Each structure stands twice: as structure tokens, then as C-alpha cells.
């Protein structure tokens, strides 16, 4: 398994930091203050900033904060670099694009967010779409949202398509984790890349980018019980089953939301706790929306989505595709991809939803039978009329002596 590469070069972080500071030193000439004193003060301030960042990199980088000094150095260094990134981004100078991009290698989410903001200020182009697609697959939701906003500030059809594809809809400071392929209910093709922005294992949906569509197809075709189905064909064939699952999910989500809302009471002494709870609720709703949108496999983001069913199971009165995979060409990422889907709800929840849709199915079947009977009646009537017409035509010809 591969987790997404957060770019780029083999440069160490010290070189990256100094590359940024050197660039800033070069850009300082664009907007000088006035006089030698101002220049001296500017140089002194830059030197102090260099010292803070260098001390942090040399003494505290990638080390647990064992003392207050290291923790303070980290905060100061990050604030300095965030300010510098903003300065470069606000210049809207394309020359700084790749210098800024190097900082995305940082382990600090705050810096990666600042990088995304700066790139957005400069203005991405279609030619940057491939690089930005890597940044958009950051494990931290807040970083993904920042990258999504940066993409939205760019211009071009490829960027527009990429922005629609990644759909960063929910916040979060904690990184999402990559699921262990061996613990998922469906097999994962080796050498696949996990897509954080299109996955939610808790909801039974995980997406991957693959290297070769033929290889991916062969892998899942050999494990399938049924298929292949075109996605539209699959939706039509299992429309009631998929509808039952959607209804059961909605019922469960509504119940959970009501439960959370009941406990959401303002506490003037602890407003922070309330805000955090509201953010979590927003994230849950955002994930639901993201999952639902990805389940549509809409063109032009997805080309030729194809379904293989790996498991079917009888629940109540219907047979459900409880584990299946959708293969497709991911147009925005310019790579083949696939999405593993499995049922996460208990059978009782499905049966409850099924009880309502069974009535709909019976009414639909009855309607079809009535329509078929009507069509058959019209057909028979037409045949009778044709026979009468032919007989009348024959009798007329006899009377006329033809």
C-alpha cells in the first residue's frame, strides 16, 4: 500500500527553510522602507527570524517538546514561516510558486495550510493540476479544505474538474488514518493509493487510485460473484435494495443527529466545548454529503464506471449486494481508480426500511401488469380491427367485380 506522497524533492527541511528565507531576502527589495536605517532594521529583523527558525530546526525539529523552550520555538518558527508564506503569496508573483510548494513537505499542518493559502493567492493554473491533486490528498481534513480553496481560486477547466472531484466538505485538525487493507471486508489491489478525500471506512466506502485499469479489472473480475454491470444497469437492477440502504442510513443519521442536538446546550463557562461539538457534527454531515456525491459517479469526473459484485446476501424479502467494487477512469486525477463498498448497517435496520419499499415494489409490479394487460388488449383490438378491415375490403372488391 502507498500513502500519498506529500511531494517533492529530496531536500532536507533546513534547505527548504533557507530556500524560503533566501527568496524572501531577494523579494524584500521590491518594497523597501526608506533610507539606510530602514534597510538596516529590515536586515536585523530578517536575521532574528533566521535565528529563530534555525534554532528550531537545529534543536527541536521532529523531537518531542521536552521543555517549554522547544515548544515556544516551534510556535515562533511556524508563525514566522506562515507570515513569510503570506508575504510571498500576496505578491501574486508566479516565480515564487515552486519555492512555496517545497514547504508542503513539512510535518506541520499549519504550514501546509499556509502553503495552500499562498498558492491560492498566486493563482494556480491548469498545468498545476497534477501537483495540486497530490496536495489535495493530505490526511488532515483542514489541509484538504485549504487546498480545495486554493484550487477554487485558480482558472482552467482541469482545475474546475479537480475542485469538483476532491469535494473537501468537512473540517478537522486530526489526520485521518489509512485503513489496514488486511482488515477491510474487500480485497485491495496491491500498489494502490488510498484517497483520503473520497473515503470513509466507517460508512463502508473507501476509494483508491490504481496504476492500470486492465490490471485492476482482472483482479476484481477473478473475485466477483456477478458482473460486470454498467453502473446505470446496476442501479436499475438493485434500485430497491440501494434505496433501502440509503433510507436506513438516513434514519440512523437522523437519530444520531437528534441525540447530539439534545446534548448541545450552551455553557457560558465552556463555549469552546460547544464549538468543538458543533464542528464534529458539521464534519459528520460533510462526510455524509461527500459519500453521497461520490456514490453518484457523475460524468465528466468518472468515465465508464463498472460494477463487480463480490457478495450478495438475503435480508428479509430481498437479495442485497452487500459487497461490491466500482471501477472507473478517474478523469480529474488522470488515473484509473476504484471504490470498495460494503454494507455497514445491521440487518434489522435494512428490514425496517424494506417494509416501506416492499409496498412500493408491489405497487410498481401491479402497475406494470396493468400496463402490459392494457398493451395486450390494444394489440388484440388492433388485430381484430385489421381483420375486419381486410374482410370488408375483400367483400367490397367482390361486389365491384374485382
Summarize the structure.
By secondary structure, the chain is of the alpha+beta class. It has 13 helices and six strands. The chain has two domains: 13-166, Alpha Horseshoe (Leucine-rich Repeat Variant), CATH 1.25.10; 181-246 and 288-352, no CATH class.
Describe the protein's architecture and organization:
There is one protein chain. α1 packs across α3. It is built from 13 helices and 6 strands. A hairpin with a 2-residue loop joins β4 and β5. A 6-stranded antiparallel sheet has the order 1-2-6-5-4-3. The protein is elongated. By secondary structure, the protein is an alpha+beta fold.
Ordered list of secondary-structure elements with their pairings:
Blueprint (H helix, E strand, L loop, with lengths): L12 H15 L7 H25 L8 H23 L6 H6 L6 H14 L6 H7 L5 H12 L4 H10 L26 E2 L10 E5 L3 H9 L4 E5 H7 L1 H24 L8 H24 L7 E14 L2 E13 L4 E8 L4 H53 L3
Antiparallel strand pairs: 1-2, 2-6, 3-4, 4-5, 5-6
Helix pairs in contact: 1-2, 1-3, 2-3, 3-5, 5-7, 7-8, 11-13
